[in-house]
């Protein structure tokens, strides 16, 4: 019996060692499989992230703005701002074009010193007047027949000249004054100085516009000019338009 036990002992020991080896190999295999799965998942996440980043970068290069979270693009802020700027510029140039059209159709112009001065003759008009917070609508007086406008521009740049005191006299063919008024500044389709006048008889008249030097706060040095040359519009000017047909 003792001999049989001694013979079985090595066999049992070998079997135990075999079981331990099998268990160790199985655990190693499980760990290897788990590591491989983790590596594959990480690779997939890296690929997906790179794709989203590429889409975002491409949209950004196309001029878009992000909205709704990473990877989504919408809007063109730059284009919107540019369109608004173009619209404002068109309005400014349109106002100058409208003024020039009316000068050619219902008036005329002359160049005097540093100014290009235009005039427009129309029928008597109405307008808002008074303090900004207490405006009242003014209708033409019964004897007012015409609305006459004076438009002074810088001869070189073409800009309208503001802050001027302007007086306009309507003279008949004998040189006698028919009517005389100071002109106010008017905000309209285009900027101008104007007032209503009483011209009872249809005929040919002379318009004498007396323009005082504008009351600018300051005068910058102009590009391409010296400081002395930039002292513009410092003297009053008088311009006369002869042969103007005005209907009473």
Secondary structure blueprint with pairings:
Blueprint: H1 2-61, E1 65-66, E2 73-74, H2 77-106, E3 107-112, E4 115-123, E5 127-129, E6 136-138, E7 146-154, E8 166-171, E9 177-186, E10 192-197, E11 203-211, E12 237-246
Antiparallel strand pairs: 1-2, 3-4, 4-7, 5-6, 7-10, 8-9, 8-11, 9-10, 11-12
Shape: globular
Distance between the termini: 152 Å
Query: Which structural class should the secondary elements be placed in?
Result: alpha+beta
Portion in strands: 25-35%
Count the strands?
12
Overall pLDDT, averaged? 77
Order of helices and strands: HEEHEEEEEEEEEE
Helical segment count: 2
Cα-atom Rg, whole angstroms? 45 Å
Poorly predicted tracts of residues: 1-18, 25-34, 46-75
**Most strands sheet:** 8 strands, antiparallel
Helix content: 25-40%
Across the major sheet, the strand order is: 3-4-7-10-9-8-11-12
